[in-house]
Amino acid sequence: MDKKALRQEAKDILTNMPSSTRQYIQNQLENFLYQTRLWKHASTIGITMSYGLEWDTKPIIEKAWSSQKKVCIPKPNQTDSSMKFYAIHSFQDMEEGYKSIWEPNVLKCEPISKEELNLLIVPGLLFDTNRNRLGYGGGFYDRYLQNFHGKTLALAANEQVYPIVSTDEYDVPINHLITETGLRF
Ligand SMILES: Nc1ncnc2c1ncn2[C@@H]1O[C@H](COP(=O)(O)OP(=O)(O)OP(=O)(O)O)[C@@H](O)[C@H]1O
Ligand SMILES: [Mg+2]
């Protein structure tokens, strides 16, 4: 199945998920994340502000702040599909950007280099056990991850894990995946 059809399947899975199931999975993802050594040892994390069907990252950002971690949010550049991360210290450091996604207000935030991010929580619609990730189709993360040396982790429901997802040569696999049953790899 091509990426476009797979993305639609994943969106359908998430759209049709009962809200009680969604709430249960959301809690499990958070709890398992906080138990990982990766999380405990990360002092600077990269994470996006979730929107739409994505798992909610707001409580994760708040947890990171209360655990004295530096929280970095990407500012996408539509011209070249690149991203730059900025450290935010409150939700007031953000503004609504492209496609109504919250992004850092660069006048208020400190830019963070790729080398400073210990842990990058990457968004995605579908995953497989070979660490492949199907994103939302912008190619922003694939570009950013090309020369990224920190650890990447994704959060997903088991329903979002397929035996195999289609990939292209530029797709960068993830290091870790957490689902509602725990750390899958
Ligand atoms: N390293 C790269 N250099 C140039 N173009 C790239 C690179 N990686 C991806 N692209 C381009 O980005 C487009 C989207 O890629 P893809 O469908 O894999 O997105 P995605 O993985 O879903 O998005 P994202 O990485 O933002 O989560 C592709 O058409 C591809 O040409
Ligand atoms: Mg990709």
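^ adenosine-5'-triphosphate complex. The radius of gyration is 16 Å. Residues 3, 134-143, 146, 168, 170-171 surround adenosine-5'-triphosphate (ligand 1) (CB under 6 Å).
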